[in-house]
């Protein structure tokens, strides 16, 4: 018998759950794209996007996904042959690096593996060794969605400053923005990118590039940029159509307007961050119990051991021999779709099945996360996967705010 009939939950790390309000806002006839409500509404998005990125500088909107933002930001900040340094904490760094190579940049990785955060001191040392200042940018994935490692961008900026190095600090915040705390200006991040389909709760289709004055200066020598990707007319358009270099993504903009209303004007960004933090702590508390199974290495385990480097948006889980089986079970028996493991083992090998990920970004309440955790708990039992007890209780204790048990604050 399957218990999957009834409301289903999508708990993959992007696209995230689209609120009904956002869907309803998109359900409308096509608007005029030359004058009127759409034009005014679109202009209203820019200040709210800047609030989400915590920047006073520039925001541009591209029609595209995260890969589009990867390309857009590099095209505007680099000349062919430039060297970029990519500290790596998972496979999204590889993706961004491939885009950089495609643009004719030289890519150097500092690989930290798949389980720990970037070491700011190691980045600082590499920059100090770069006495000729050949490195033009440090490209950091804030939260790597494959490993769920979150790195400390503020500390990385401090190391860059201490090294006296002029490279740009460019951040991929596609998984983290609107979920994990991110302060573009305060942390000294020069460019930040995100997509609409994760923390911003809008169906995939638009992506954002934020950039400051230092990045504006880099644009002056950037010879990678083509007319379509150029952020100059998009930031300061003479006519509305320059904003998108063509037809506006009309319905996405209405959806995004509704999502930003929810985040910026109703709940408030800091409350959104606090909700994600609390829910992530509840999830970590559940795992702390499940992990306590007394057997060696066969049960469930969080990929990131250091609580302060665990994302509040996505969690990678190691489950030797049973990752895929548990995902299949929760989907077919409980109506909860978990994410596949990414970048931990090559596709087609038996080890590929040892991993899964949980998306907990965006439109997520206490009860919806409890549903996901309960489905996992039931699956661990149904499949006889070794696990400790008391996980759901530990999660509700965190959610209730009366944590009598000791859980590290992440
Ligand atoms: C999702 C994601 C991307 C890629 O976004 P797409 O929309 O799939 O192109 C890049 N970086 C990070 C950190 C992501 O989470």
From TrEMBL:
Residues 52-291 form the Aminotransferase class V domain. Coiled coil: none annotated. Signal peptide: none annotated. Keywords: Oxidoreductase, Pyridoxal phosphate. The keyword Oxidoreductase applies. It comes from the Bacteria. The keyword Oxidoreductase applies. It holds the Pfam family Aminotran_5. SUPFAM superfamilies: PLP-dependent transferases. The modification N6-(pyridoxal phosphate)lysine is found at residue 198. GO terms for biological process: glycine biosynthetic process, by transamination of glyoxylate. Substrate binds at residue 357. This is Soluble hydrogenase 42 kDa subunit.
């Amino acid at each position: 018998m399957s218990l999957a009939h009834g409301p289903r939950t999508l708990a993959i790390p992007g696209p995230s759950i689209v609120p009904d309000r956002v869907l309803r806002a998109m359900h409308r006839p096509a608007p005029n794209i030359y004058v009127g409500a759409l034009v005014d509404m679109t202009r209203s998005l820019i200040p709210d996007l800047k609030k989400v990125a915590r920047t006073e500088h520039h925001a541009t909107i591209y029609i595209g996904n995260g890969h589009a933002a990867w390309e857009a930001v590099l095209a505007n900040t680099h000349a062919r042959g430039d060297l970029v340094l990519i500290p790596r904490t998972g496979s999204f760094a590889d993706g961004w690096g491939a885009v950089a190579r495609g643009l004719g940049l030289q890519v150097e990785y500092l690989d930290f593996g798949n389980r720990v955060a970037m070491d700011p001191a190691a980045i600082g040392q590499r920059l100090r060794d770069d006495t000729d200042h050949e490195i033009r940018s440090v490209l950091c994935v804030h939260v790597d969605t494959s490993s769920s490692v979150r790195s400390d961008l503020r500390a990385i900026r401090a190391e860059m400053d201490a090294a006296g190095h002029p490279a740009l600090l460019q951040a991929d915040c596609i998984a983290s923005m609107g979920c994990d705390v991110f302060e573009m200006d305060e942390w000294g991040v020069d460019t930040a990118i995100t997509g609409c389909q994760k923390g911003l709760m809008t169906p995939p289709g638009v992506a954002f590039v934020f950039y400051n004055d230092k990045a504006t200066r880099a644009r002056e020598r950037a010879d990678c940029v083509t007319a379509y990707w150029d952020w100059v007319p998009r930031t300061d358009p003479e006519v509305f159509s320059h904003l998108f270099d063509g037809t506006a993504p009309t319905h996405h903009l209405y959806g995004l307007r509704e999502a930003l209303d929810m985040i910026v004007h109703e709940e408030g960004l800091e409350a959104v961050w606090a909700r994600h933090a609390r829910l992530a702590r509840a999830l970590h508390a559940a795992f702390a119990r499940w992990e306590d199974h007394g057997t060696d290495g066969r049960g469930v385990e969080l990929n990131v051991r250091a609580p302060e480097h665990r994302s509040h948006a996505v969690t990678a889980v190691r489950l030797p021999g049973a990752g895929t089986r548990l995902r299949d079970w929760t989907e077919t028996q409980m109506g909860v779709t978990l994410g596949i493991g990414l970048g931990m083992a090559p596709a087609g090998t038996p080890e590929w099945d040892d991993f899964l990920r949980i998306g907990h970004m965006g439109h997520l309440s206490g009860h919806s996360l409890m549903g996901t955790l309960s489905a996992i708990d039931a699956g661990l039992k149904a499949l006889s996967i070794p696990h400790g007890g008391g996980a759901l209780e530990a999660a509700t204790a965190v959610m209730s705010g009366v944590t009598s048990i000791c859980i590290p604050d992440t």
